[in-house]
Amino acid sequence: MLTFGSRQQKPEVKQLLGDNHSYIRGNIATRGPCPGLNALANQGYLPRNGNNITLSEVETALMSALHMDKPLASALTNSLKPLVHKDKTFNLADMRQHNIIEHDASFTRLDFRQGDNYTFQPLMLQALLADADGGPVTVKSLAKTYVRRLCVAFEYGGDRGEVVEGADGYVLHGGEVSGGGFEE
Ligand code: HEM
């Protein structure tokens, strides 16, 4: 006998019908430099086409998918305001605009002047993992990555190079950092 209205779908039925939040990789042409928001679109918590997204949709996605509370979700979402169009929406690709929120010296994305500041770069992730010397990625290893990336920006004239000049306790030697607190 057929029944209707069951709240729980059997896994095989769910698979056949498609889960709203299943992973479907979006076209990179419709994605920005933030892996977090890209993932929310790939999982259907934000419009999968990455376009015409309202700030309220972002806030709701952060709360429902990542269980953020409203003040945190709102604070993060507010940073998108400069990207919003007249129709009160934005596209993930708008986030590529340089020095609005996107910046140089990212961990896994190239700098703006290199032409593509949004595509994930596997070699850059490998370098981030290497900073952890074969161990787990920690705050300390990420600090090392941060300084390394700032130094590269400094060396090649990127926009965040000036941060290195002010970085307390670090000296630049041909792209290498020494004198900081992260050396053993
Ligand atoms: C409204 C919320 C958010 C906004 C407006 C936002 C915005 C951005 C922007 C503009 C970037 C690029 C910065 C750069 O140039 O390096 C970025 C990077 C990043 N975002 Fe988000 N983001 C949000 C939420 C999230 C969430 C929820 C996650 C994780 C679950 C996340 C993870 C990351 C990571 C790991 C990066 C660094 C990528 C890298 O350096 O290679 N973000 N985000």
Report the total helices: 7
Order of helices and strands: HHEHHEHHHEE
> What's the number of extended β-strand segments?
4
The count of domains is 2
Radius of gyration: 20 Å
Bound molecules: protoporphyrin IX containing FE
In terms of DSSP E residues, the strand content is 5-15%
For the sheet with most strands, the description reads: 2 strands, antiparallel
In helices, the fraction of residues equals: 25-40%
SSE class: mainly alpha
Distance between the termini: 69 Å
Name the poorly predicted regions.
Answer: 1-7, 166-184
What's the shape? globular
Strand arrangement, major sheet = 1-2
Name the average pLDDT: 84
Describe this structure in words.
The structure is a single chain. Strand 3 and strand 4 (176-178) form a beta hairpin. The chain has 184 residues and is mainly α. The protein has two domains: 1-102, no CATH class; 105-184, no CATH class. The termini are far apart. Residues 1-7 and 166-184 have low confidence and may be disordered. It has helices at residues 11-17, 35-42, 55-66, 70-78, 122-130, 139-155, 161-166; strands at 53-54, 89-90, 171-173, 176-178. The strands form two sheets. The chain has a two-stranded antiparallel sheet. Strands 3-4 form a two-stranded antiparallel ribbon. The protein has seven helices and four strands. Protoporphyrin IX containing FE binds next to helix 2, helix 3 and helix 4.
